[in-house]
Fold this protein.
Amino acid sequence: MAYETIVVEVEDSVALIRLNRPEALNALNSRLLEELAAAVSAADSNDKVRCIILTGSDKAFAAGADIREMADKSFVDVFTEDLFTISTEAILRCRKPIVAAVSGYALGGGCELAMMCDFIIASDTAKFGQPEINLGTMAGIGGSQRLTRFVGKSKSMDMHLTGRFMDASEAERSGLVSRVVPSAKLLPEAMAAARKIAEKSAISVMAVKEAVNRSYETTLREGLLFERRLFHALFATEDQKEGMGAFLEKREPQFRDR
Ligand code: CO8
């Protein structure tokens, strides 16, 4: 499929999806979100892809939902079209890991999109924020829920109520991002992480993703049971025998996703 607002490359089992609307700092319009949903679904069902990276430009991961496109919409418009729901659900449905590689602005819907990914690697120029309050609105695709779970109530309230930006080092201290690297190293670092994930058994990778995500949806007791059952279930795979066997034989495992 030919895309207009994103660029997709597949290399070494990794699909790199780059948001590409430089004229609007990668603001998320409906076209971009449809293309992103299609690209993520295609990568999820492509046997050659084992991990996905979502990135933007040096200046902006994404500066939010497209304000120009939204400005004249009415309540009835956004309610009936259920703005952004279908496109964002494709990302949440994806069973392969998605790493967000964030440089520059990740604001509003851009910050929310990064948080929908499985983890965030940030460049030292990254700026995160939920500035929708400045537009007389508020987060609409997960910011009030996900940011609060990641950085706690006080910082989340501060960000949403004042609209201030959080720089990369504060984001790392607060647990919003997993690592911060110099801007020039962002993609190499994300690629190295994705390639490492791609070497693992795809079954364990999917199980880990399900288990960690379940921790945000359920009680500790239910989450622990869910994890234990997945752990038990992995003993039915050839990859568990291969992984443990390889350790004991002091060699690298050859996983076959079985
Ligand atoms: N939408 C549309 N266009 C944008 C956006 C945006 N979010 N952000 C930047 N642009 C455009 C600018 O209009 C400008 O275009 P032009 O050159 O044609 O005027 C171009 O990108 C460059 O931007 P600036 O000149 O403003 O660049 P600066 O470096 O001076 O400033 C900023 C960069 C600080 C990022 C600034 O552009 C800014 O504040 N942008 C808006 C950030 C924002 O408010 N984001 C939140 C948007 S609302 C949202 O995301 C809601 C999500 C949930 C929706 C759920 C619905 C159900």
